TrEMBL record:
InterPro entries: Topo_IIA-like_dom_sf, Topo_IIA_A_a_sf
Region (Disordered): 251-273
Record lineage: Bacteria, Bacillati, Actinomycetota, Actinomycetes, Mycobacteriales
SUPFAM superfamilies: Type II DNA topoisomerase
Name assigned to this protein: DNA gyrase/topoisomerase IV, subunit A
Catalysed transformations (reactions): ATP-dependent breakage, passage and rejoining of double-stranded DNA
Amino acid sequence: MGRQSAAGASFLSASLRFTVADDAAPVDDRFRFWHGPQNRWRIESNDEVVYVRGPDATVLRGSDGQMRRQVADIVLPLLGQVNPLDLLGSESMLMKMSQDAYIGPASSVLVDGRPGWSVPIGTSDSDAMTVVLDDETGMTLRMESAGQIAVAAASDISVHDELADSVFTWDGTLADTDDRSHRGDRDADRHRARLDILTAIHRALDRRDEVFEVIARSAEPSEAADAVSRLLDVERTSAEAVLALQLRRFSTSERAKVSTELDEMRRDPPPAD
């Protein structure tokens, strides 16, 4: 995991393609992204900016196509099952893995001419996925499930001495924003947003079969967000947070964690300023 930490301190840009070879639900997501130290990001999909994180603000594009300021750290952009955030930095898939995860022996490989290290990682030897780490940057170059049904592959990697601050700044229109600058207002907004999202997630974990069913019946992410919003009686942004959950979050242990945090937030609102 040390190489992943080192990658988080680098200026770099690359492309990512994530595919799932499933006749019932095929996936072919493509991204171009830029990364800088202090967890700065710019991510584009289909030549459209979908996520920008800078030192002062984080904005993301919802399923309705509008860019919004992120006010709660649990909100995730609708970037799909695997996205550039999974490749490096503090929020990467490897950094979030349990310390009890199975990690097999590493072997040297070449991926599109780039030296790397291939490592099987999973809950056990039998269900391990293959992860390839770039030897130069420490970034994840490739992830593939058993049988290569799901494959995430980075390409066109460039390491930069520096990237302009403007790369990590969104200067376009923001939906649903206001000009309040009072710290108490901001704290209350964040608390309210996180509480709404945790409530939605808690409801989704209680009704996971119904959630999976309405998502499976939806033709587009926007339609799925509307369906989840109606099913759980929550705001659209909260429904998008449910859609962004990884499947592991639907486990019993994760439900307990969400329930505990939700109880704490209901019990301890932010102090009035």
